[in-house]
Design brief:
By secondary structure, the chain is α/β, with parallel strands linked by helices. It is built from 13 helices and eight strands. It has a single domain (about 10-235), classed as TIM Barrel, CATH 3.20.20. Belongs to the DapA family. NanA subfamily.
């Protein structure tokens, strides 16, 4: 059975794939990006080539190169590097899984194929099992994101008996708001040492109460420090303080969601906060608008997530 160095826990940044203005991958900033996550955000785990990383918009060759660059630059700095290797083609997914093992990744994750879809649990498990078998020593995570894949098989159902079929199964990345399903995944697998990684950043505190062991998300790229404060408060059972942190994070996410928020906007926000150019997204996504960037910047400053010199006191709503 695959055994990770330790169970994946805490915050995991769903990394952005930096691009040049011409839409090519900008490998040159990945080293700086690793340092930023570790030193400025206190985030030591990453999830590469997922939704935020536009993994499904990259070619297989690009995905291999991106994975390699993160593993290389993260060596001796990051705790764990998990590579998302899901693809519509089983063969491509297996190739990426093998490659992740060869380059020394700490785990692989797979979403459900979303064009020709598995319509029941057994078929989905068969697909995942074939991918996992291509890299049997890699800890394997199922990436549940039904709103994007359209595959709505409940995670609870999928997890039932999964380790017997996929011995390298190590956990679940749960990007859905169904806390009944999430809670039941935890409850029914308490005796196993699985990682339960929640993927809806604005609701993380509720998931911690339900037994989440960690979280994978886009906002941990730039709100990692703030979210870590929430995790610490939760850990010391200071629930009032944990709730204040979650509300503060929600205020920002709620604000950008109302403006229209997705991967393009994440790239723009990360560029603003970190100063590292993330570049535009790849088609079919479109660059965040100037108006979005200006509004997001003002909100980040008012909440104290970005330093400022140009705001009047009345415009401040700093989070404690
Ligand atoms: C749909 C989506 O992109 N969800 C994000 C969240 O981090 C999300 O951006 C956040 O909760 C704000 O809504 C993550 O679950 C995605 C993720 O982990 C990934 O990039 O693989």
């Amino acid at each position: 059975m695959a055994s990770p160095k330790k169970r994946l826990q805490g915050l995991v940044a769903a990394t952005i794939t930096p691009m040049t203005e011409h839409g090519e991958i900008n490998f040159s900033v990945i080293g700086q990006y690793v340092d930023y996550l570790v030193e400025e955000q206190g985030v030591r785990n990453i999830f590469v080539n997922g939704t935020t990383g536009e993994g499904l918009s990259l070619s297989v060759s690009e995905r291999r190169q991106v994975a390699e660059e993160w593993v290389t630059k993260g060596r001796n700095k990051l705790d764990q590097v998990v590579i998302h290797v899901g693809a519509l083609s089983l063969k491509e997914s297996q190739e990426l899984a093998k490659h992740a093992a060869e380059i020394g990744a700490d785990g692989i994750a797979v979403i459900a194929p979303f064009f020709l879809k598995p319509w029941n649990k057994d078929v989905l498990i068969d697909f995942l099992k074939e991918v996992a078998a291509a890299a049997p020593a890699q800890p394997f995570y199922y990436y549940h994101i039904p709103a994007l894949t359209g595959v709505t098989i409940r995670a609870e159902e999928l997890l039932d008996g999964i380790q017997e079929k996929i011995p390298s199964f190590q956990g679940l990345k749960f990007s859905d708001t169904n806390l009944l399903d999430f809670g039941q995944c935890v409850d029914q697998n308490r005796q196993r040492q699985l990682a339960f990684l929640f993927g809806v950043d604005e609701q993380l505190l509720s998931a911690l109460v339900m037994g989440a062991t960690g979280a994978v998300g886009s906002t941990y790229n730039y709100l990692g420090k703030k979210t870590n404060q929430m995790l610490e408060a939760f850990e010391r059972k200071d629930f009032s303080s944990a709730l204040n942190h979650q509300f503060c994070i929600q205020r920002f996410i709620n604000f950008v969601v109302k403006l229209g928020f997705g991967v393009s906007q994440t790239k723009a926000i990360m560029t603003l906060v970190s100063g590292i150019p993330m570049g535009p997204p790849r088609l079919p996504l479109q660059k965040a608008s100037r108006e979005f960037i200006e509004n997001a910047e003002a909100k980040l400053k008012s909440l104290g997530f970005l330093s400022f010199t140009d705001l009047k006191d009345g415009n401040l709503e700093p989070c404690s």
